[in-house]
Amino acid sequence: CAPMVEEFSVIKSISHDNFVYNQLGNDIALLRLDRKVVFKDHIRPICLPLSPEVQKSTSFIGQSYISLRWKQTGKILEGTLNEENVTTEQCPVDAHQSFLCTTENTECHENSGGPLIRLGRYLRSTRQMMFGLASHGKGLCGKGQKAYYTNLSIFMPWILNTLAGFSTF
Ligand SMILES: *[C@@H]1O[C@H](CO)[C@@H](O)[C@H](O)[C@H]1NC(C)=O
Ligand SMILES: *[C@@H]1O[C@H](CO)[C@@H](O)[C@H](O)[C@H]1NC(C)=O
């Protein structure tokens, strides 16, 4: 019964200059859409970790988050939103330092670009914030797959500087 999906085109994509191929490090890009997104009940933005306090809160290993992924149920573009409670763990020693790591039940559904979220405080209010951006998994997909998320806190200066070069629609 949800309102219709809306489709947008990407008119520009800016990927991070220091992508590290062998470890998939600094795995992040910004996409500019072809027009302004009009927010409504089913289309909402999410907050990013802006303040240094909120950014530092991701240092704690064992912090809980919610991992969101689309689970395809039928035809392409038909799916349900899958939510899983996960906690961060120490990344493997050979991982690039730009990641937050978890273990998940991926059920073999592709999730790259998906969000790792939890509540955070900003300007005396509590909001849903996106702390991680799904990069890749290691090992067989399914139960207990190691998941690597780009630690967005590290990239806030890059995001803000890049956005500053563009006007709004
Ligand atoms: C994520 O990045 C923030 C900001 O650089 C840092 O304080 C935090 O320790 C990082 N988290 C992990 C788990 O490395
Ligand atoms: C995740 O944890 C919260 C708080 O403990 C709980 O309310 C929620 O039902 C859990 N969600 C799932 C999908 O297990």
TrEMBL record:
Cited InterPro entries: Peptidase_S1_PA, Peptidase_S1_PA_chymotrypsin, Ser/Thr_Proteases_Immune/Dev, Trypsin_dom
PROSITE patterns documented for this protein: TRYPSIN_DOM
Keywords from the UniProt entry: Disulfide bond
Domain Peptidase S1: 1-164
A Pfam entry, by short name: Trypsin
Similarity annotation: Belongs to the peptidase S1 family. CLIP subfamily.
Protein name: Peptidase S1 domain-containing protein
Species classification: Eukaryota, Metazoa, Ecdysozoa, Arthropoda, Hexapoda
